[in-house]
Amino acid sequence: MRPPRLFDRPDILRAIDRLSAQIEPCVNAADGRGIFLASGGRFYLDWTDIADKPETGTAECGDPAHLLHQVKEGDIFMRRLAALVEQEIGGEMMFTETNVDYASGNTWGCHESYLVARGTDFCAGLVPFLCSRVIYTGSGGWNNQSKGLEFLLSPRVSHLHKVFGHDTQRSKPIVNLRDESHARQDDQRIHLILGEGLHSETSILLKSATTALVVALIELGLDPGSAVALKNPLSAIRDFASDPSCTAVASTEQGPGMRAIDIQRHYLQLAGDHLADLPVWAESVCRLWKEVLDRLESGEEQASPRLDWVIRRNVYTSFLQRRGFSWDTIHSGAALSSEEGQAVRSELFELDTRFGAVSGKTVLFQSLDTQGVLQHRISGWIPREETVTRAKLRGSIIRDAHEQGNRRRIVADWSYLRDQEGRVLDLKDPFTVNAEWQIEPGRRTDRLPFWHA
Predict the structure, then answer these.
(1) Whole-angstrom distance, CA of residue 422 vs CA of residue 438
(2) By residue range, what is the domain housing residue 335?
(3) Domain tally, the chain
(4) Is 221 inside a domain boundary?
(5) Is residue 128 part of a domain?
(6) Strand, coil or helix: 258
(7) Does 340 reside within a domain?
(8) Domain final position from 327, 342, 370
(9) Same structural domain for residues 132 and 243?
(10) Residue 403 domain-assigned?
(11) CA 386 to CA 391: how far, in whole Å?
(12) Beta bridge partners of 56
């Protein structure tokens, strides 16, 4: 009998890269990394000196309901990709959105991008909001830099070292200052890397929608962060992330300490006062925002969870009880000194990784959802903004190229498409619905490269 073929990590990554083009209509990315999809989004392998990993990116979205749909479509794409890899290689292919790795100590974030006019001063207005939103945007999990067991509402918080900065790999900031708009010169992209991959529809939608509303308030000329400015944002976000009771208090520049819930209610009040100047979906989002804050404050959320970190913590509570442990014994550290305690620690790390999985034999969140024990879904009642982005045009061209057998003759980027004849489709306007192919200025059409899958 022929022995099974052994695949190392590079083999698996190459298989992922190759098979990803078989799932839906796509074209190669212009920078040679991965593909752009007919959905308007992107898939690629991020080859870095930190860790090689597959990444998906949603299309540009005009409203939070569209973004939620895109995120869920991305999960479906990864499950289909996992099935193809398993057919070719065998074994179990588990893609996980867990944001920390317990073997290497690495962390991976779920990046967010928000479009604003260039020159918008958004930093001061955003920081208190971002520090306090972890009470409903945190994925939940363990501090992978701790030798014990420390549950955090947002495990990525332990890897944040600056309030502002340009680095996305080592010295991670609360607000990333990368100036890369992928759009017009007058456009600016707010690039946030502190967030995490989420499963709960409530958490996913609230994360993007509330942040977008705060950005909109800033663009209206308001200064939403001045009344709740934090003395030490890094200390505040760590305190908030370490407190499942949501009662931790952070010092503010104005003097009185404030809980994360208090800071969030401040932003919610401002949004409610300016609904006439905000998108049509703002009122529905504000109702959900208030409901979640009320549930966290009353303890209703902990009893009947809808948010990622609360669902996750309840799963771990049940696990600890079955093993004869409690949160008090875990926090004391004494129980972990035993051989059984160390085994429980390892099992919890594995459980956390599987909770974040979107593919594999045990997809824990999906299993709980299928059983009907979760109440996180909100699809259908958030109004859709009739805002069409360039993603629709990009996607239609990619689909047409696929149907005509020309996918290898076109490459894509966020802000343009290019074909083998030297023509370029300018997509710098994020809201363009019509664009004409143009010969790229100064580009020779008699000597063009050929792009391969």
Answers:
(1) 8
(2) 98-370
(3) 2
(4) yes
(5) yes
(6) strand
(7) yes
(8) 370
(9) yes
(10) yes
(11) 14
(12) 43
Last residue of a domain, one of 311, 340, 370: 370
Let me know whether 212 and 313 are in one domain. Answer: yes
d(CA 34, CA 143): 32
Strands, E assignment, 197-325: 249-250, 258-259
**Count, residues in the chain:** 453
- Per-residue pLDDT for the chain (453 aa), expressed as one digit of tens each? 455 556 677 888 889 999 999 999 999 999 999 999 999 999 999 866 555 788 999 999 999 999 999 999 999 999 999 999 999 888 888 898 888 988 888 888 889 999 999 999 999 999 999 999 999 999 999 999 988 899 999 999 999 999 998 877 777 899 988 888 999 999 999 999 999 999 999 999 999 999 999 999 999 999 999 999 999 999 999 999 999 999 999 999 988 899 999 999 999 999 999 999 999 999 999 999 999 999 999 999 988 899 999 999 999 999 999 988 888 888 777 667 778 888 889 999 999 999 988 988 778 898 899 888 898 998 666 666 667 899 999 999 999 999 999 888 999 999 999 998 889 999 999 999 988 899 877 655 443 333 333
Residues 336/330, Cβ–Cβ less than 8 Å: yes
